[in-house]
Write a structure and sequence with these properties.
DNA Polymerase III, Chain A, domain 2; alpha+beta; nine-stranded antiparallel β-sheet
Length: 375
Amino acid sequence: MKFTVDSAVLTDSVNWVSRSLSTRPIMTALLGIVIDAQKDITLSASDLETSAKSSFNADAKEIGRVLVPGRLLSEISKNLPNKPVSFTLDGTRVLVTAGSAKFTLPTLPINEYPNLPTLPETSGNITSDLFATAVNQVAIAAGRDDSLPTLTGIHVDINKESITLAATDRYRLAVREIKWTPNDPEITTSALLRARTLADAARTIANTKSISLAIAPTSSNERLIGFSSEAKSMTSRQLDGTFPQYRHLLPAEGIATAVIEVSKLLDSVRRVALVTDKTVPLRLKFKDGTLQLEAGTGDDAQATEELEIAYEGEAIDIAFNPTFLTDGLNALGTTYVNIAFTGSNKPAMLSGKNKIDGETDSSYRYLLMPMRYAS
């Protein structure tokens, strides 16, 4: 094996596949990245749950296939000088050279490396930046507790030309609806994927024009979902378990509505929350065109701030986790937030508005549970 590649191309490919490297492998081979030098060069990695591949053109002098330590190759590729990088297999070693920088990598037993799953047949296509934005908007609400694996996922519900993404950690719920172009206009299916996997894929693929989505049929034993764009692809096994029924939680109407400029509300929340721990409630009092924010009680440090807002409906006295509130506001991507209330002790729903008197964008909804606070 012998080839030369541009350092930026190498780094991009290694970054993509290294996301699928196993941190706790059941076999040593899963610590490695496969380098397969044929007409094109293909890198691949897997932790048996997620597998990633990336191909690129290179000046190949000799073909070959080797397995090298993945984390080491990742660190080396990030720190190489901006010069052409040459790879040469020399016995059981791979020589990596870029300018005056030279590295020698050991090889791992390639015969022990498992066969990676085949990407399912493409189900349709979607604009990359739209998909990446949608994933990031819902991933913030996914659980972090691996003892509740179902809640660490993003539920993907496909109904013809519409895809609905949803995630919840029981304290908040994020739902985003987007359009795509399915190969079968009557397709209806669903999948539950690890939020971390989906978010990693979305971040990297966002720089491309479009991605292909591939979902294995429910009759398949593999239960895979795949993403591909240009020369990159990823497959991931779906999570076991049933995602909670969430649609009935989204309120159809409320008793009060506030419209606030997102940047001003974010600044106020951050200032007032300075006096307290991130998990201690931030109290918000809505009435008569004003919002009063309060944090801290008793002998502790305290802070208050008042904002003029557009408000309609009953007075509401409610408290939120300030971090969760900030997450939702940041995810909106609009100038204004529309907060709909059904009660002081019931969840509030955040959605976006580009103009204070414009239409509410219901394609993204962020439902936030209230917290108890000391009187």
